[in-house]
């Protein structure tokens, strides 16, 4: 079992980028889901669940350390990291209320125009704290979760995707690509759903602990190139991947947290079981 790819999504629910090597710490992959699009009026977080047009936007980091936003139309907007003196906003991610640093009017105007809604962009800055119950290995690091849904890292395998596609193609559906599932780390050289049996493991210079399966939602039905949805993808997955303990959950991939100090994972690194 080896690491096939690593993906970073700087802005939650926007497209991201791949990296051959990436630093990892208790918040996940460096820069992953550190920015969040929120409703300008309520502060509620926004995702592809309600805004499939987010698939038409990409976030990347520049050599200057700023965030660069791109739309498929060719328009772009460079967003400097908010200074410590930047205005803050109280925003909500699921049940968590957190403080985000506002990224300014140009970013808000750019995103609002492309999402056809009044939104703001916030950053997990100096005042941001989001305690993570799954970080029991590191009680000294309570602020381990960025704007990700449930855990710092999402991991899946190529073989698991193949197993789904083997069920989709006989139904006349096109094979889907891994980007619909938005994992950070993708494994190869293993059987389908081998990631389910990982508990404690190491990739490169980082040790991890699984904190359980990832229950999937409508986002996996969303073509990340067009924003169009194919409901049969989730219903097909549900036929063979329902959680035996929580049947309403349809699982694909696992959540994980780093349990060692900061380190680097690189494509090609072996996945070593530690238990």
Characterize this entry briefly.
With 275 residues, the protein is mainly β. The chain is 12% helix and 33% strand.
**In total, how many beta strands?**
18
Give helix and strand order, one letter per element, not per position.
EEEEEEEEEEHEEHEEEHEEE
How far the N terminus sits from the C terminus, by CA atoms, comes to 15 Å
Mean pLDDT: 93
Q: Shape from CA axes?
A: globular
CATH topology of the largest domain: M1 Pyruvate Kinase, Domain 3
For the record, the count of structural domains works out to 2
Low-pLDDT sequence parts: none
Helix content: 10-25%
* Name of the CATH homologous superfamily of the largest domain: PK beta-barrel domain-like
CATH class of the largest domain: Mainly Beta
Class computed from helices, strands and strand pairing: mainly beta
Q: Major β-sheet, in short?
A: 8 strands, mixed
Strand order of the largest sheet: 2-1-13-12-16-15-14-18
CATH architectural designation of the largest domain = Beta Barrel
- The whole-angstrom Rg is 18 Å
How many alpha or pi helices? Answer: 3
Portion in strands: 25-35%
